[in-house]
Amino acid sequence: MFRVIKRLLLLIVILALAGTAVVYGVLTLSLPALDGKGQSSHVSNNVKISRDLLGQAVINANNRNDAAYGLGYAHGQDRFFQMDLLRRNAAGELSELFGKVALGLDKKMRFHQLRKRSRAILQTLTKADKQLLTSYAQGVNEGLAQVGYASFEYLLTGGVQKPWQSEDSLLVIFSMYLDLQSATFERDQALIQIEQAYGQKMVEFLTQPSQYQAALDGSKLTPFTDDIPTLPAQAQHPVKNIQANEERGSNNWAVTGAHTQTGAAMLSDDMHLSMAVPVIWYRAQLNYTQNTKEFQITGVSLPGAPAIVVGSNNKIAWGFTNGYIDTADWIALNDESKTWQVNEPIALPNDEVENYPLTLSEYGPVKYINKKPYALSWAAHQPYAVNMELVKLEQSNTVDDALAIASSVGIPVQNLMVVDNKGSAAWKHMGGIPARKTPSELSVNTKQYSTLFEQNENERPFVKNPQNGRLWTGNSRVVSAIDNSRFGNGGYALGARSSQIRDRLFEKQTFAESDFYALQLDNQARFLMPWHTLVLNQLKKDKSKNKQYISELENWQQCACASSVGYTLVKRYRSALINTVFASMENKLNEQSGTLKYVKRDLEPAIWQLINTRPDSWVNPEYKSWDEQLSGAFNQTVTALRAEYGDNLQNWQWGKVNALNIEHPFAKQIPILAKFLNMPIAPGFGDSYMPAVQGKSFGASQRFIAQPGHLENAIMTVPGGQSGHPLSEFYRAGFSDYVEGKHTPLLPQTLIHQIIIESAQ
């Protein structure tokens, strides 16, 4: 019997090893060749595609179109599935890959009809821009064809790799609109529902300006001075976690040459996005000739598009943060408003099709909010939303050159921060901005709608070389209080992060790259210090009962540090108290398919006003008084932490509670693949409301620091590898530098692979 069991176990081991060998064999077939020669009729001269020790693609070409081909070739080899997901997500075409489970998401995206808009915009582009997109698409498809075998994602889904088209690159840019601006109209919808349920004064109370304001001119918005609105009598409701919407945003700042040893201005930029495997950005350097001039542009590209998004040409360096000005309005329709219905066919596997009925109007697609029709007018729906003007940054020589093109670039509106090698630094809004003059966070009626919405705004504020030599943005209001009434609030960040960056910049007079990197990693918990005082004072009312918690809070290190239990307690307490105080409002909105999610970060000044004045109507019916409510929120915090992490307080350390876990989307669905596909889990470092932004799968998607003219010291650190293939030598390359805070060079290092594509013309 023992021999039989032994033989069976041996057979199982052999079969497992054989199965593993087969899997690795199949995966190996889909690895791209990174060395060799090929031919193409789509390039005018030879194109060289090299890769360095990190897998950074270095493209050498004789003109910009051939450089686009080379970048597309590298993207097609390393990132095609990621690109496919981006275009399908924006177009609402994921169901064709994943089946009916993706129908809900596809319908949400089809509301915007972005495939049709991409096709229409493509026809309006200049001949040069069309050729640029064509060259890029040809490179993508030939790079993909070189691989020969479909990647494992297509083997698992049974999906088909469809050729890349020029319009798909526009869809990829639209995908960034969805990621960066959809919270703007979602927030407006929440405010409309709050106004309908509680009145205009409640909206003003919940969205009042905070003390954290960091506009470049130092201006302050008028504070809320009215009485606190009375909350209607509350029934007892379960306290739900109001999940705050992640700030798709970023930090950037700059100093003029007066504050560097070189005399060149210096830029820092770290863009905050959801992080997955592969990471969204792709490191690249483009080397080409245009009008007899040689250009070299180094930075990160977005797979699917032929441009360097953030980087430097050694004359200027540029970076972005999300603008969060108001680019969308809900138009309240009436009985006289003309609407019509179209069917959006959504393809499913096996040639099935589901028709999605979409109601349209002259103002935009129509959605029912509390059973009333509203049309969405959004910058992304306009002809100026997307174009190829961003490429012009590559050939800019000065800050003034960059400022001159900012108004014409078709991307989601961003805070452009740009510096040059002469010492100048500037900020300006870049991207599509509706020209209508009176933005609204609530709905407007059809008579208030302005057709100027359909035009791009050319007149925009900017700041160049301020007297103090410092510029900063962090997704909060940047414009003056006067300009704020013109450009509106599209969901600004609270301002705590921007304020901390501003204050840090005034702590020194001269900066080097290492100083900027230290500021990117600044995780001091300045924002939570009042909350720390509140909860500690609350617990000291019963010192014997709360002894262990008091000890952790008194030693919390005042930072989002990996070993801090106290930070976890303060952060979770703040959230629990907000959830408790606003429980009845959240439940009421939920009944109307609404939520406070998109306004939760606005609530900071309101919650402190409530804590300080303690109005009876704002006591949750579960408690008899504000003291009970304040204590009860801490009890909820402890109960939740015990349920998640056990009774041992050391398991509540912030580094464990907020551990960085960057996952492949397939590993989430098939956990057995996690070890094979995911990045290693790293201790949590940083949080929201501080420069070092980090969540479990959210944070700085790159860290970039540069002085044009001195790029030998420039930094570009990315939380993941270049390749989307798990067997590639570049799958995890660079990740350890990111989590360890190392200064990964921007410029390519030793080149170890080279492909030459010869012209067959």
Count the strands?
23
Which secondary-structure class do the elements indicate?
alpha+beta
The count of helical stretches stands at 23
Strand arrangement, largest sheet?
Answer: 1-23-2-3-6-7-8-9-15-16-18
C-alpha Rg (nearest Å)? 27 Å
Oligomer: single chain
Unreliable stretches, pLDDT < 50, 5 or more residues?
Answer: 8-24
Instruction: Please state the overall shape, judged from the principal axes of the Cα atoms.
Output: globular
Distance between the termini: 72 Å
Average pLDDT taken over every residue: 94
Sheet-strand content, in percent, reads 15-25%
Major β-sheet annotation: 11 strands, mixed
Q: Indicate the percent of residues in helices.
A: 25-40%
What would you say about this model in short?
With 761 residues, the chain is of the alpha+beta class.
Could you please describe the fold and organization of this structure?
This protein has 23 helices and 23 strands. It is an alpha+beta fold. Among the domains are: 1-30; 180-227 and 258-281 and 316-521, no CATH class; 526-558 and 565-652, no CATH class. The strands form 3 sheets. It has an 11-stranded mixed sheet, with helices on one face. Strands 4, 5, 19, 20, 21 and 22 form a 6-stranded antiparallel sheet that branches. Strands 11-12-13-14-10-17 form a 6-stranded mixed sheet. A hairpin with a 2-residue loop joins strand 6 (282-290) and strand 7 (293-301). The relative contact order is 0.16. Mean pLDDT is 94; it is low at 8-24.
